[in-house]
Amino acid sequence: MDNMTMTETARLIIGLRAAGFSEKEINDFILFIETGEEQYKPKKAE
Fold this sequence. Notes:
Number of helices: 2
Mean pLDDT: 90
Structural class: mainly alpha
Shape: flat
Helix content: 55-70%
Distance between the termini: 34 Å
Number of strands: 0
């Protein structure tokens, strides 16, 4: 699979903001995608 372009990345961030993600949640999600580390994995909202 090809790498995401800056436009695709920006659209992802804008979409996550529109969905109500906080800046920290967005950062953690992107870190999880890039690293696969469990500490950044999104958790289900209660």
